[in-house]
Amino acid sequence: MKHSRLLFGFFAVLGIVFLTLVLAGLYLDYVDAVSILASLNSQLGLWFVLGGIISLTVGVIGMGRQHFKNHRNLFTALAVVLIPLLTLAIMFVASVEIVVYAPMFPMRSEITQVAVVDTSPLILSLNVKALTSRDTTITGAIIKNYYGQFVTGQKPIVSVYDEKTESYSNQSICELPAGSTISLTLEYTESLSSGNYTVMLFGGMDSNQGSSPFTIP
Prior knowledge:
Strand content: 25-35%
Number of strands: 10
Shape: elongated
Helix content: 40-55%
């Protein structure tokens, strides 16, 4: 009896774990996070849901039948019908909550290093690392001062370093493959005085490509 409780308890917990992984994978996929869960969810999400419901149902029935000895058949029938329905309803509500409350502008890349090459005119060198499971693009950059005010009015010339040719090439749109790291040079026509600034990369209305502070001495 003790071993059977442990076994059915294991099935119930396993079912909850499967369903939780599906929701976690959905969230990570929605925010474009690089994650094994996001990848598995896109390929095996349906099987995880079915496996979770089946495991949870078997576990609950197995544990419940030990307490409802006089109404085992009725309990089993109700459990077979209600548990999948309730589980699907909960999964649906949780999925909607994830979509509604997930970040509207998820981080798609991060600036891992920024260096000031020149100040007159301003030239910055950046290393940018992708944070997404999808290819994205970087179309430009803006600079803010310590008070959050924009201090550059011109779109910079963006140069991308090619490791194969060991040289930079000017590009209006920089491709950022999933999981990759690229080196950029931003050349402005303006000069900046001494102070603390923040460079922000962008790639569209819904694309946050990361930001990083830098200082001009």
